[in-house]
From TrEMBL:
The protein, known as: Transcriptional regulator
Gene3D superfamilies, A to Z: 3.30.70.920, Winged helix-like DNA-binding domain superfamily/Winged helix DNA-binding domain
Single GO MF descriptor: sequence-specific DNA binding
Source organism per UniProt: Hadarchaeum yellowstonense
Pfam families: AsnC_trans_reg, HTH_AsnC-type
Lineage: Archaea, Methanobacteriati, Candidatus Hadarchaeota, Candidatus Hadarchaeia, Candidatus Hadarchaeales
Keywords: DNA-binding, Transcription, Transcription regulation
Record-linked SUPFAM superfamilies: Dimeric alpha+beta barrel (SSF54909), Winged helix' DNA-binding domain (SSF46785)
Entries under PROSITE patterns matching the protein: HTH_ASNC_2
HTH asnC-type domain location: 2-63
Length: 142
């Protein structure tokens, strides 16, 4: 069970995943070993799945980012989601309710490459019915 202290640790690590346990402990008034044990427990229980970094796509040459809704044949939903997840251009893939069955974020070097990914890669997957891209202008949070 996650308690208030665990939530504080989680929030601190969400802000900076490289934050040393000693700094977290100092800010929360805990021993470093207590923080270490709590983080290990959070990882073991699946609350914390992994530590990662946040990259600015344009700084590494990806100047076209799109959030893409994909509608598919219902019997192909998981199969297509898995295929999208295998594509190196996808940053994340989720199944969803609402306007689209699958949502994904695509990074491309430019708009021409983005167009090719959408039409030649995603559009060519059997069972894909509709692709609805929205170009990301500016990321405010995340």
């Amino acid at each position: 069970m996650v308690d208030a202290v665990d939530l504080k640790i989680i929030r601190m690590l969400e802000e900076d995943g490289s934050l040393p346990f000693t700094k977290i402990a100092r800010k929360l008034g805990l021993d470093e070993s207590t923080v270490r044990k709590r983080v290990l427990s959070l990882k073991k229980s699946g609350v914390i799945r992994k530590f990662s970094i946040v990259v600015e796509p344009a700084k590494i040459g990806f100047n076209a980012v799109a959030l893409v809704g994909v509608d598919v044949a219902p019997d192909k939903l998981l199969e297509i989601a898995e295929r999208l997840a295998q594509m190196p251009e996808t940053r994340y893939v989720v199944t969803s309710t609402g306007d689209h069955m699958i949502m994904t974020e695509i990074w491309a070097r430019n708009s021409k490459e983005l167009s090719q990914i959408l039409s030649e890669k995603i559009g060519a997957i059997e069972g894909v019915k509709k692709i609805c891209p929205a170009i990301v202008l500016e990321k405010i949070k995340g």
